[in-house]
Design goal:
The chain has about 90 residues and is an all-alpha fold. It has one domain. About 65% of the residues lie in helices and about 0% in strands. Helix 2 runs antiparallel to helix 3. It is globular.
């Protein structure tokens, strides 16, 4: 379900990877509010927000709200999202 962190190579068809496409989608979302992940301040806030979400997920696991597999899946998604500023 998730794209492994670091899987940023082109697809077999020579197009962009799923992670690159995801990064582009995130960038377009920021562009909608006149922001860009290429801006160091915006990127820093974005990455800090992902850190907070990761701690929230860890707390959810510790409290039995999500299991270890769900934590691993969701953490992998966050890891992919952390690549976005580098890929836009």
């Amino acid at each position: 379900m998730t794209t492994p962190p670091g899987n940023t190579g082109p697809t077999e068809e020579g197009g962009r990877s799923a992670l690159e496409e995801f990064a582009n989608d995130l960038e377009m979302s920021f562009n909608d509010v006149d922001r860009s992940l290429t801006n160091p301040e915006t990127s820093a806030v974005f990455l800090r927000t992902l850190d907070i979400w990761e701690r929230t997920l860890q707390g959810s696991h510790a409290n039995g709200i999500i299991d270890a597999g769900q934590l691993a899946e969701l953490t992998a998604v966050l890891q992919g999202m952390r690549e976005a500023p580098r890929l836009v």
